Amino acid sequence: MKKHIVVKYRILVLTIEVIIFLLFVFLAYNYVSVPAKKTTFYLSDSKSSTLLKTLSKHGYNIYTLDKYVLKFMKTPKKGWYSLKNKRQGRFTFFKSLHTRQTKTMNIKLYAGETSEELTKRLANDMKLDPIRLLNAYKSHSQYKESDLFSGRYTVARNADENTTIAYLSECSNKIFRHFSHTYTHKKHSELEKKVLLIIASIIQKESNSIDEMPLISSVIYNRLEKGMKLQMDGTLNYGKFAHIIVTPERIKNDNSLYNTYKHKGLPPAPLGTVSIEALRAAYSPKASEYLFFMLNKDGSHNFASTYENHIKNIRAFKSKSKDDTYTKKIKPSL
User: Fold this and answer.
1) Where are the alpha helices (DSSP H) in 38-106?
2) What is the pLDDT along the chain (334 residues), one digit of tens a residue?
3) Angle at Cα 7 formed by Cα 3 and Cα 8, nearest 5°?
4) What are the CA-CA distances from residue 11 to residues 2, 5, 7 (Å)?
């Protein structure tokens, strides 16, 4: 009997010691306070692992015990959050996170913009530094252009330059992954992705018509397959020449690899921001034998399978048009 009491006593003492130890651990854990740091970030979901990974990216120290503590707390839902420059205990910090959602604004990225145009306009809309925003774009960029897809996005009003571009880059990467998975049913290599973006950017420069994009795409693929030069003005609308009319003098004097009147194949890099419609057209050109197209006054195009028919289209256009200045821009070489 006495022995039985001693065993119970020892179990009780051990239990108390374990409780005291756990209390000490949690008190010590809470004492390791979160540093005073002001930051804004985006959570793509409400998983505790996503939260911890995001906090780590923004300079917060993360410990193994954090993931266990978060199992008993309300985690923030998907969205933008802003943290104040305030030192807090870890329990208080995690408990208050879901109340730290911040004000947002809608922005739009336009198809055909270069990185400099995009960041300059976006900096003005968001009251950010244009140079820092462009540098952030370059640091996240793979192709210099076309890294971000056109469309509407929601961002935090107080997000800094790097956070903004990082978010837009992640959104665009998700758009491409979704495109690859649901539309092409395959995972593209980096080279395949680059080629698709180059073709999509040419299509985007040549036409904004969603209906015409697959036909423009077919001309590109047909000319490449036959070993013909692309001879497209759109490829010369790169960098600082993005929105400058291509003249015969420009074609003659531009010796860069973007000049597809002189060089066969695709230009070395994408030309600007593209839409998902242009990307789809780049992957799925419409079946045709078209090798030529010419721009009409209303912005549409006439397509032809032979050079002779292409010339007929140009002559028919000239006979109907009274605008001599406009018709001089139509080059029979394309």
Assistant:
1) 48-57, 64-69, 90-96
2) 666 665 565 665 566 656 665 555 555 555 565 656 778 999 999 898 999 999 888 888 888 878 888 888 888 899 999 988 777 777 777 888 888 899 999 999 999 999 999 999 999 999 999 999 999 999 999 998 999 999 999 999 999 999 999 999 999 999 999 999 988 888 888 999 999 999 999 999 999 899 999 999 999 999 999 999 999 999 999 988 988 889 999 999 999 999 999 999 999 999 999 999 999 999 999 999 999 998 888 888 989 999 888 888 888 877 766 554 444 444 444 4
3) 120
4) 14, 10, 6
Exposed / middle / buried, residue 217 (Cβ in 10 Å: 0-12, 13-18, 19+): buried
For residues 294 and 298, what is the distance between their CA atoms, to the nearest angstrom? 12
User: Among residues 212, 234, 230, which one has the least CA distance to residue 302?
Assistant: 212
Q: Residue 98 has what DSSP assignment?
A: G
* 0.90 exceeded by pTM: no
Residue partners of 279: CB distance under 8 A and separation at least 6: 149, 176, 179, 196, 197, 200
